[in-house]
Every structure is written in C-alpha cells, then in structure tokens.
Amino acid sequence: MKKTAYINGIGAVTAQGVWSERLLADATELQQSIAPVQHPSYKEMISPAMVRRMSNGIKMGIYASQQALDEAEIAMPDAIVAGTGLGCLEDSEKFLRNVLDNDEQFLTPTAFIQSTHNTVASQIALRLQCKAYNFTYVHRSVSFESALLDALLQLQSGKATHILAGASDEISDHTYSLLQQIGYIKQDGIQESVKNSTSVGVNYSEGAVFFGLSTNKMAHTYAEIVDVRIQNDVNQVQLKDFVALFLQENNVAIEEVDALILGINGDIESDQYYTHLLADFDAVPTVYYKHLIGQFDSSSAFGLAVASQLLKHQELPKQLFWQEQERKNFRYVLLYNQFKGKDHSLVLLRAC
Amino acid sequence: MAELKEELKGKIIEVLNLEDVAVEDIQDDDALFGDGLGLDSIDALELIVLMDKEYGIKLSDPKQGKSIFQSVQTMADYIAANRTK
Amino acid sequence: MPSGVAITGMGIISSIGQSVEENWHSLVREKHGISRVENFTTTHVDDIMVGEIKLTNEELIYRLGLPETNTFTRTALLGLCAAKEAVDQAGILDMQTYRTGLISSTSVGGMDFTERYFYDYLTEPALQRYITSHDAGDSTHKIADYLGLQGFVTTISTACSSAANAIMMGARLIQSGRLDRVIVGGADALSKFTINGFKTLMILSDGLCQPFDQHRKGLNLGEAAAYLVLESAEVVQKENKKVLAYLAGYGNANDAFHQTASSEDGEGAFLAMQKALKVAGLQATDIDYVNVHGTATPNNDLSEGRALIRIFGNQMPPFSSTKAFTGHTLAAAAAIEAVYSILALQRETAFANLNFETPMEEFVLIPETETKLTPIRKVLSNSFGFGGNCSTLIFSES
C-alpha cells in the first residue's frame, strides 16, 4: 500500500530572514537586482571547529535543516536529499581564483573540498552523524523538485519514514556579475518589483529551505505531498496538457485546484509561461513569492513552504496573492515553476 | 626564535580561520592536533602549504607533518633549521 | 526485486577506448590509457599522470556533427558520445514512444570552459555564450536536446559516487512505474580545477597508480563518460528487447566521518554493500566478481579493504580496480565501471588490477593481476565520493 508523505517541519534562511510563522507577513518586497540573505547567528548551532571552514551556503543549509528537523521532531532522518543549482559557489570561485591567479602554486585544500556540490548534504550528515542515504541533485530550477521527488518515492514506497529534503544556493560575486552581463539578472539601477517588471532578468538572491517529511501525521502537520512531476521542456502550447495530465493522473479535476502557487520572477521571458497557464485558471486564487525572496535556482523550495503555510492556516498575508479570488476552503494546491521555459515542475499538495 | 613563534601563531590562526583563538591563547608546547588546538588532517595540509609559501620548505609526504606539526615549538625548530626564505 | 531492472544499452568513452568494444579490447589486452596531460596546459604536467582521452574538443564536435557555434563544454561532448552509443545499442529510434528520462551526473560540469574564460567573460562578448554552460545541469540538457528527449531530466552530483546514484535513481523511477525507460550515467572532463584540487589533498600519484598495493602513492585522474539504458519489464517484453544484464541491487550510505577521508573501518562502504545485497536478495557468497572503487590512495584502499573483509570475510571473490586503466574519472567512474561490470558478466571475465606488486600489510587481499576467464553471474561494483558518499551497485546476468 502506498504510504502518505506529510510535511511536518519547515526551515529556511532567506533574504527576509529565517523561517517563522511571521516571516511572510513581515516580509518586504525586493526592488533591487541582488539581495543577500539575512543571516542568523550560527554560533549556537554549529561548533566553532566546524563553522570556521564553512561558506555561507553551508551554514544556511545547516541552519534551515535543523529548523525543519526540530519542527518535525526528527532526531535522525532515514535519508537526506538536497538540491542546489550552482553548488558551493563561494568556495568554487575562491579555489578557481587561486588556481588562476597563482599559476597553480601554493594552493590549499579547504576551498576545493567544500566546493563539491554535495557539501551541504554531507555536512548535515556529518553534523548529525547520519549514515543514511545522502543524495544531491544539481539541475537548475528543478534541483529542489528532484530532491523532493526522490524523497516522495522513498516515503510512499515505505523505504523511509522520516526524510530531510531541501535545497540551498549561495551568491558569489563573479558568477553574479556574469549572470548580470548576459541579462539573467536585472541591471544595476533598475528598480523593479516582480509585479511591475517590464525588463528581462530577475532580482537575484540566495537561500536555503529544508523540510522535515514523514509518513506519520502530526498535530501540526502542514500538508500532504500528493505528487511531483518534472519535465525538461514544455512549450507554451503543451503547457495546458502537461498540467491537465498531471492532475488527471492524480484523480484531481482542474476545478478542484483551490490555489496556484507560481514561480513568477519578473523576468518577462520566464513569466510568459505563467501568464499562459493563468488563462486556464482564471478563477483560482494565485500566489507568488519570488518578489519576497528573489530568484535563484532552488528558490521554488520556498514556494513549497508558502503552500504549506496556506494549507495549514487556510490563509496567507495579502501580499502573497498575485490574483485574489474568493475561496473558502483550500484543499488542493498546485505549484508550478520553470525558468526561461526550461525545467518545468509541478507539485500537488493536499490539506490534511 | 621567540619572534618566529609569535609570527607562526598569527599565521596559523589566519590560515586556519581560528576565529575565537588569539595569539596569547596558544602556548609554545600546546598540542596542535588532537586534544590541544583540535586541528585535523585538512589543517595539516594547510600547514604544509604555509611552510612552502612562507618559508620555502617543501614537504612532499603528509606523514612528515606528524612530527613537525606537534606544537608551535616543533614547527619553529624545523623552520629555523630548514628555511630557504 | 526478484530479477532487477533490465539494462538494454550501454555506451562509453574513456582513455582506453571510444566505444564499448574498444574499451573491452583494451581491458582484456591489459592496455592502460594513462599518460601526460596534452589537451591543455598545466604547471603540473611533469608531476602527474592522467587518463586523458586523446581527442580535442574540435575532433569531438566533428564526430558528433555539431555546428561550429555550439556551446558544448568537454563534459557535454564526452557525455553525448557515450549517451548516443547507449541509445543506439538499445535500438531506440523514437524517444517519445515511451515515458523516457535522463539522469546524468557530473562533478566539474562546464568547469573546463569556466577556468579558461573566467576573467575574459567580462570583456569578451563573443565568449559569453558559454557562461550558462558552467552549471552541472548544462551537459544533461544538451544531451537530452540532442537526443530529442522530452521528459524527466535531472542531474546528480555526489562527487565520485555520482553516476552510481544516477543509475540507482533511474532504477527506482522504473520500479515505481513513473518511467518506462531511462538513460543513466555520468560525464566528467579533466580540468585544471580538479587536478589542482586533488593536488592540494596530496593524493595524486606521480606515476601509474597502484590500487591495493602496499606502496601505492595516490590516484591518477581521468576523464570519461558512460551511460546505460534501463527499461521496464513491460517495454522489454513488448519490444522483444535483448537484455544485456540486470541491475539487481543498489545501496547508498554515508560514512559521516570526514568531509574527504574515509573512516578506518569503512563503515559507509560496508553499509552501502550491505544495503545493495539486501535489495538484490543476495548473500555475499553469491557475488562472483567485485569491481572495487580502488582509487589507489592510501586512505581509500585501506578503508575499502576493511569494508570488503567485513562483507566477504575470508571468502573474497575475485576483485580488481580498473582505475589503473582509466584513471579516476570522478562523477563518471561508477558508470564506466557499470559498463565494465556488465562486460564482465557477458563475457565471463574478471579484469586485471594493473600495477599491483605487493600486498598491503594490513590484510590479505590480492586482486586479480591478469585478465581471468571465470564464471561470473553477479558483479558488485563500489563507488565512493567526498562527503562520505558511498554507493554500491550489483549487476546480474541476463
């Protein structure tokens, strides 16, 4: 029998600070092309011996994961599954600069060691002394959803009871400049929010979001994960069928979807897809979130946190709604994300 | 020698990011690894590069580090005897 | 899982051959592919030996028939060569007939181009088209696009166990009924970044690597790509597909000991092998050949050896590390060795552990030193990576 996967804990470090019930209400809209995260103090959580070598991405990942585990009351997960689009960029760049600037001489290992993509997941394991399954997905805007699908497979098949799943991405200077150079990030001086954007490129950020997932339901459970779907390519004409087929396979009618949570990010090239989808869902409340936490490869993980909050509390602060429509009950919520028409993901949640 | 040891302590703190440690906290004979400063094998590799870069001493086998990196004292002794810059 | 997931195609490019058959010939003739770096400049050229594929990017582009203005990095070029062979062998003509996925893996991704143009990107507009080729997902996208694959596509990066994990995830997606067919494997090109990284860890040998030898001095890095095609039982039956071998078991565990080094007792490796045997429903005594991780670093071989003894006791089956042929090809390694494991099954051959002279003093583990014909029905293959990531795959004959 297929088991049910519940979201029992959430943790995050974002441009708006760390995850809390108040985070969404207190958040302010980002208007600048780059927004670093607001770091908490890591001292209480990570020992000085470990923290001295860690880049921001690792620290964020550890903080968010512990928050999620605590809330889900998971002491030792049966699996750790992480996603990251660009990995530990700070250390990658640092090591590469050292190689290039010093003609391959006098290089030290620390930055190289921490530059591998699976550093966050492995540092979490090391800290927890968790010898279980440990995977890291690195596929642009479906890095997180790949991790989520992996977790879902294990929970539904009964291979695991408790899983830590999440994602993190960090900003580093050079990569940021390069992405700005080619128009992926809005130019300096452009002050546009996601909603009033008229240009290509995004307001860029970084962050870590983790979830404590379990097959047991708790009093404070947020929601149930029904299904996850990933596809590399979907054109705008195919989009309708892509969504319809996913819902149909899960025996959910389009009319049963009570809210859409979209990865609208202010890049006019990416956002066409959402506009297109909205045409089929015009009477459905639509939520967005990247105006608060920015775009980065794994920022859609935060969308799942927003969806979880909506299903648990049956409401969200007004500033999360792209289009507000009257709904009394939120039972099914559908998340959709992609970037520039590539790496589409759908996640279906159900209220508990 | 005293000067070299002070310099060495400062450099160790710097390259190993020992944020909460000050030069005064490290005694000449304190163990750098294990129970003392608590350094590990990655730190040993960092120290090997420090020896090369700052003092022109090349250690090709990480195992050599074991006796040299016992304490600031043993490091300073080795550097004084073998430095090329 | 009684019989496992069917493998219907495989493809490979490595420093010992540009196809499955070429690799086979080098393996049985004990011809390694370790040499000096030639394709790019590095100040370490005389200090290290590598498993470099002696084809320039231009030659690979020509071979694949790509337009001149492509943005393929070397990782993507190698990956495509191998993926194409795997798909051809599986006789797949139309990617859209079944729900088909691609799970690739890489550790460097497009680092070979990034390290070349890192600073120039800011000032040379003509080069900027390569900027988005840096990330690990890029090569996977390019392979999917070239093959005309529209479906589940993702990338895994868990350092040197990456491809094993891609294979594992692919199998699970088929077993769960989410996919009918999936192309799984990995690709990694040599780069200055990795050469210097391993150099700082002081685990690169200045000569030919000697896995499981008392006097081993470290590893040789290599570059390669390999992919398998996994298909569901339904597709195999419907299409009357020839099955090359089955993926019978798999396991992943974390050593949780150190960011790079393996634990003394090889706990992570032990757990990975134990899980894989359990998934396959096999006993250790059922295994006829082990393709060990065997990087030839002092730390790996000792740790892995201890884990092997914990699993196999004093009944260690024939084993060898094929990294003395190819070098350690990082994220691709497990896919390379999956192809070799399948060849071992198909042709009942255990491959030689080249350069072995002196047994390690810590235990009695003597690898095969020559190509050996022996009945092989089950092969176990290990791959371990930084961050304590340990993976084991078990293949069984068709």
Automatic annotation (TrEMBL), chain A:
GO terms (BP aspect)? fatty acid biosynthetic process
Which stretches make up the Beta-ketoacyl synthase-like N-terminal domain? 45-211
* A Pfam family of this chain: ketoacyl-synt
Q: Does the keyword Cytoplasm apply?
A: no
Superkingdom: Bacteria
| Keyword Transferase assigned | yes
Give the protein's recorded name.
Answer: 3-oxoacyl-(Acyl-carrier-protein) synthase
Q: Give any GO molecular function from the UniProt entry.
A: 3-oxoacyl-[acyl-carrier-protein] synthase activity
Q: Which UniProt keywords apply?
A: Transferase
Automatic annotation (TrEMBL), chain B:
Keyword Phosphoprotein recorded: yes
Q: Which InterPro entries match?
A: ACP-like_sf (IPR036736), PP-bd_ACP (IPR009081), Ppantetheine_attach_site (IPR006162)
User: The Carrier domain covers which part of the protein?
Assistant: 1-83
Q: Which domain of life is it from?
A: Bacteria
Enumerate the UniProt keywords alphabetically: Phosphopantetheine, Phosphoprotein
**What Pfam family does this protein match (any one)?**
PP-binding
| Protein name from the UniProt record | Acyl carrier protein
Q: Which organism is it from?
A: Sphingobacterium wenxiniae
Write the lineage as a comma-separated list.
Answer: Bacteria, Pseudomonadati, Bacteroidota, Sphingobacteriia, Sphingobacteriales
From TrEMBL, chain C:
- Keyword Transferase listed? The answer is yes
Checking SUPFAM superfamilies in the record gives: Thiolase-like (SSF53901)
- Classify the source by domain of life: Bacteria
RNA-binding among keywords: no
The transmembrane segments are none
GO CC entries: cytosol
A molecular-function term among this protein's GO annotations = 3-oxoacyl-[acyl-carrier-protein] synthase activity
GO biological process: one example: fatty acid biosynthetic process
Q: What PROSITE patterns does the annotation carry? A: KS3_1, KS3_2
What are the residue boundaries of the Ketosynthase family 3 (KS3) domain, all occurrences included? 2-397
The family database entries (InterPro entries) matched by this protein are listed as:
Beta-ketoacyl_synthase, Ketoacyl_synth_AS, Ketoacyl_synth_C, Ketoacyl_synth_N, PKS_Beta-ketoAc_synthase_dom, Thiolase-like
Quote the Gene3D superfamilies the UniProt record gives: 3.40.47.10
Keywords, A to Z? Answer: Transferase
Signal peptide per UniProt:
none
Family affiliation: Belongs to the thiolase-like superfamily. Beta-ketoacyl-ACP synthases family.
Q: In its UniProt entry, what is this protein called?
A: 3-oxoacyl-[acyl-carrier-protein] synthase-1
Instruction: Look up and give the organism this protein is from.
Output: Sphingobacterium wenxiniae
Q: What is the lineage of its organism?
A: Bacteria, Pseudomonadati, Bacteroidota, Sphingobacteriia, Sphingobacteriales
